Amino acid sequence: MVEVLAHGLGHVKPEVATLGGEATRESELPMFNPDEDQLIGELGFVTTRIAGSDRPGEVQINFRGGSETFIAYGDEAIERGEKILVVGRRPGRALEVTTFPS
């Protein structure tokens, strides 16, 4: 069971959690990593320009009944608003994408 202690004005900001009885800083909690098989083949669109090579941007993908934003890398530049196809994963919440014909 995860217990979150929070503070803030008008919003909740997790500060410390307990996992198995041990106090843990938020930065030490396991990062959400969607299952690789569920994301490869998904379509989305670019929200922050992907410059290509090792210069990522961001994409939004409809996933699990909502939409989520991921860091995205592409072999070539992909402009904001363009449709993309997820073709691979990188560690954390990063994806490999390519343009998808409209």
Number of helix segments? 1
Q: Looking at this structure, what is the CATH superfamily of the largest domain?
A: Nucleic acid-binding proteins
| CATH-defined architecture of the largest domain | Beta Barrel
What is the helix fraction of residues, given as a range?
under 10%
SSE run: EEEHEEEEE
Assign the CATH class of the largest domain: Mainly Beta
Q: What is the end-to-end distance?
A: 45 Å
Strand content: over 45%
| Sheet having the most strands | 5 strands, mixed, barrel
Q: How many domains make up the coordinates? A: 2
What is the CATH topology of the largest domain? OB fold (Dihydrolipoamide Acetyltransferase, E2P)
Provide an overview of this structure.
By secondary structure, this protein is mostly beta strands. It folds into two domains: 1-30, no CATH class; 36-99, Beta Barrel (OB fold (Dihydrolipoamide Acetyltransferase, E2P)). It is 4% helix and 50% strand. The protein contains one helix and eight strands. The chain has one helix at 36-39; strands at residues 3-7, 13-19, 22-25, 43-48, 57-63, 66-73, 83-90, 94-99. The strands form two sheets. Strands 4-5-6-8-7 form a five-stranded mixed beta barrel. The chain has a three-stranded antiparallel sheet with strand order 1-2-3, with no helix packed on it. The longest helix has 4 residues, at 36-39. It is globular and about 30 Å long. The termini are far apart. The model is unreliable at 1-19 (pLDDT under 50).
